[in-house]
Amino acid sequence: MIAAMVLVLGFYFLLLGRIAVSLIGSGGIAAIGIGIGVLILPLVGVWIVSASVRAALDHQRLARRAHEEGMEVDVSQLPVRPSGRIERAAADELFDRIKREWEADPDNWRVSYRLARAYDYAGDRRRARDTMRRAVALERLEREG
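Structure (tokenized):
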């Protein structure tokens, strides 16, 4: 599914690039300005798609490793709302417990990964993304070091 979406976006970016080149080649000042603007769109799009795919693959690798090592956050016994989300009090309690683990060993990618998951369960998506980026960087250092 992701590969198909990337291919469709690639085709779309290629079409935008061709339109931009033809606008720039027309010679009119307004057309050149619009062509440059249209040319920027595929470049930004390629950057966004590649960054998203890289992040997804990194997160998937960490999830697989955490699962293999028995470090995945177990939420199977926590109470959930009808929507399927964990009840707020249970998510906060889980977060507090995992945050204490992280405070004891903040340079461990496994604990940072668990903290990112706890942030997500608690509903704080921004901190979850930031912490997951940190976990990815720490895991990369461990793998390369």
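The chain is about 80% helix and 0% strand. The mean pLDDT is 90.
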